[in-house]
Amino acid sequence: MECPGGHGPMAHVGRFLVCGQCGYQAECSARPSPGVSDSYQRLPSILAIPLAEFAGETHPVMRLHRLCDAVEIVTRFCTIVALGELRQRLADQPLPNTLLEALQPQIERPTFGQWRNMLATIVEHLARASPLVARTARLRRAPIAAGAFGGQESPGEAPDRVA
């Protein structure tokens, strides 16, 4: 189904069709066809929409554009989740000054690179206190993430530091 605002095809998210540009939603009683949209239905819509748009795009340049959108949204989402985890662990304590000093310049102009840096900084801080987070943080150095997240492909090397 096309967006009534003329923005093109809408993505299936759960029982709804959603326009990724204007946010228009329409309830859809029919199940989406198996394949592209089905794999994203269990994700939160903020992640499902850009990922479904990427998967459904056929033009190579627009596909790259959709992939960039999806990577940026996933990075922002992960940053917010990591910050929430940190706030929960700190309870009523304020964020450590060293962490605030590292995050404040990044928030001023939040480009994709700044979101990536904030995520790396928060995850590094969380990894000091949690072995599970430390193991998960190593994923950003996996070959598939190396280009987007600046990780290193060699598992024996120390993680890159973000100032």
Overview in brief:
Helix content is 52%, strand content 6%.
Quick tags:
163 residues, mainly alpha, 6 helices, elongated
Structure description:
- By secondary structure, the chain is mainly alpha-helical.
- The chain has two domains: 11-56, no CATH class; 72-149.
- The chain has six helices and three strands, in the order E-E-E-H-H-H-H-H-H.
- It has a three-stranded antiparallel sheet.
- A hairpin with a 2-residue loop joins strand 1 (11-13) and strand 2.
- Helix 1 (45-56) packs antiparallel against helix 2, helix 2 runs parallel beside helix 4 (112-127) and helix 4 (112-127) packs antiparallel against helix 5.
- The longest helix is centred in the middle third of the chain and has 31 residues, at 60-90.
- The radius of gyration is 18 Å and the shape is elongated.
